[in-house]
Structures are given as C-alpha cells and as structure tokens.
Design brief:
By secondary structure, the protein is of the alpha/beta class. 37% of the residues lie in helices and 14% in strands. It contains eleven helices and ten strands.
Length: 347
C-alpha cells in the first residue's frame, strides 16, 4: 500500500488509517483483533483510537475500552513495531454523558499515562486533542457556531501551557508527535504560531470530518494544510455508512449505525439520499463501487489527506480496503465536483 509522511515528520503511514471507534461496542474483542490483523496484513500500518471510545453508545462505563482491546492485541501479537499508533485525549468538549476537565499540561500528562497503560505500550506515535477547550463547529454545530464569547488571551495561554507539556512528553519518549481534532483554521494557526514562537512541537495532523458529503475542510483548512504541511486525517469518510449506499430506499440493515442511531448524528436530513443517489450514478457510470470511489477521492485532494476507515465487521473492512490502489481520473473528479455544487453540505 502507498505510504506518505505525516506532516513534516519522518513517520511514514499508509494512505488508509484503521478507525477503531466500534471496538468494544458493535465489534467485540475477537473481531476487533481480526480487524487489526487484516489491516496489518494488507499494508495498513496506521491505527487511530481515542480515550472516549467505543461509541454507539458513548458511555462513561466504557471509557478506554477500545484502547484496552488494542493493547491486548499488541501484547498478544507483538506488532508494535509494525504499526503507527494514534490516540486522542477527551478534554472539555466531549460529548454525551462523558465530562472531563479542560485540556491543560496537567490533564495532558495524566491522559498520556492512562493511554500508555491501556495500550500496553511505551510510546504513542501521534497524540491528539479530541476537542478544543473553547468549543468546535464540527458535528453540525457549524450552522450556529458562535465564537464571540472566546478569550484570545486565555486561548493562547492555554496553548503555551499545553505545548510545554507536549515537549516534556516528547523528550521523555512517551509520545512522538502532536495533532489536533475537531479544530478550526484559526485554532490550528494559533497552535502553529505559538509553537514556532516558543520553539515547541508543532501540529502535524488535524483529524476532522471529511467526505464527499462533508467538505467544510475545503473552504479554509485546505489552504492551511498546503502551506503549513499539516496532514488531514479524515473521519467518517463514508459518512457513517451513507456512502456505502446501504441506506438507500429506506433500508436499515441490522447492526448498522442507523439501527441504533436513527438521526445519524444529525446527518439524516431530507437532502441526504438524493445527494447519495447522484454519487451512485457517477460510480455506476464508470463501473466503480461507491465505497471505493469515495475513498479514492481522498487521493485527488490538493493536500495530504488520509481517510480513517472503520467497519463493524471484518468482512466490511476487507471490502473497504481491497481496492486501495484505485486512482480517479480527471473526468470522474470533475463530475464529483459538479454534484458537490448541486448538493453542497447535505447535512
């Protein structure tokens, strides 16, 4: 599988990242281990998780379970040297019933130690902040996001404090690199400028939602990614299953996301199925599967972009990654862009 370097680092990762947010809920430990085996055997060396996983549902009783499942696999299979491991600390912006203190140097140090323990490893390749302390426009909050109550001075002070701890953790060999998640263009730039001013570790990655159906990243962060060499880790690249076409015509498969969350995190709107149908027609025209077209589209972006591909079952994962060498031609990309103009931001 093709590989690229994360940001400005020497960490080389596959152009597909394995997402693990269902490990411990929809996917039991045995099948989770099978998915990890499949990923490694197919050249996927990049694995992403988070303290708050699993999801569906998010529960305070299951915090850290996904990391523990990955840790048991690492301990059993001795594959640590063959994978690049990324995880995320929760912070103050976490969802549902899970609440935690804001991100700070103190909470960051504690979060890293807890993740290391659960993952049964001595180091984490990429440690990310799951949510900004000041809030985020992600997860459909972009429609009414209001930053007017923010304090610039407090934000910069928080960044200085946090980056100091990041430097300590890197110097101690506990983490290798630092990334963000659910972050804005302004926030990302402030992290970068603060790091440069203080000669502290820079942001190498941003993990935000990105797919044919959610292209907010194109309007601001794309330019930052190019000019600052920050790699996008795109979560929900198949739009929580919508871009598999399995929900067309009102179908709700068993064990699917919609079977346990009919609102699909705000994605279930009247415009969604007609938009997907337009992409289905492009895929059929060029004899492509919609899944493979949706993932291959990431390679066409003008910045480094890696889809985080998750699956409930190992069979789904095998199918999703099997056509990873696909490259879309200009004609297909132009048709995709035309559909995007006709159906922008369907949720």
């Amino acid at each position: 599988m093709e590989k690229i370097f994360l940001g400005k680092t020497d960490i080389e990762v596959s152009t597909i990242c394995l997402g693990t947010m269902t490990f411990g809920s929809q996917t039991d430990e045995k099948d989770s281990h099978s998915q990890l085996d499949i990923a490694i055997s197919n050249g996927v060396n990049f694995i992403d998780t988070a303290t708050m996983y699993p999801v569906n549902p998010i529960s305070k009783e299951t915090i850290g379970r996904t990391e523990e499942i990955i840790g048991s696999w690492l301990n059993k299979k001795k594959q640590r040297q063959n994978c690049v491991l990324a995880t995320k600390m929760m912070g103050d912006g976490s969802q549902g019933e899970i609440k935690s203190e804001p991100i700070s140097s103190k909470s960051l140090r504690l979060a890293v130690e807890e993740s290391l323990r659960r993952l049964k490893t001595d180091y984490i390749d990429l440690f990310q902040l799951h949510w900004p302390n000041r809030g985020s426009y992600m997860f459909r909050k972009n429609w009414n996001y209001d930053p007017s109550s923010q304090s610039r001075d407090e934000t910069i002070s928080h960044m200085e404090d946090t980056l100091g701890a990041v430097q300590e953790l890197i110097s101690a060999g506990k983490i290798r690199q630092f990334g963000l998640s659910n972050e804005s263009a302004w926030g990302s730039l402030m992290w970068l400028q603060t790091a440069e001013r203080m000669q502290l570790p820079r942001v190498q990655t941003i993990q935000n939602e990105y797919s044919l159906l959610c292209r907010l990243y194109d309007t601001d962060l794309a330019e930052l990614s190019v000019n600052e060499d920050v790699t996008l880790m795109g979560f929900s690249p198949l739009a929580t299953g919508y871009l598999t076409a399995k929900y067309q015509n009102g179908v709700i498969p068993e064990r699917s996301r919609m079977s346990i969350n009919d609102g699909m995190g705000g994605r279930a709107t009247p415009r969604i199925l007609p938009t997907i149908q337009a992409y289905i027609e492009i895929a059929e025209k060029y004899n492509l599967n919609l899944i493979h077209m949706s993932l291959a589209w990431f390679k066409s972006r003008p910045f480094k972009a890696i889809p985080i591909v998750g699956a409930t079952t190992k069979e789904q994962l095998e199918y999703n990654i099997k056509n990873n060498a696909l490259v879309l031609n200009r004609e297909i990309i132009d048709e995709i862009d035309a559909v995007h103009k006709m159906h922008p931001m369907p949720y």
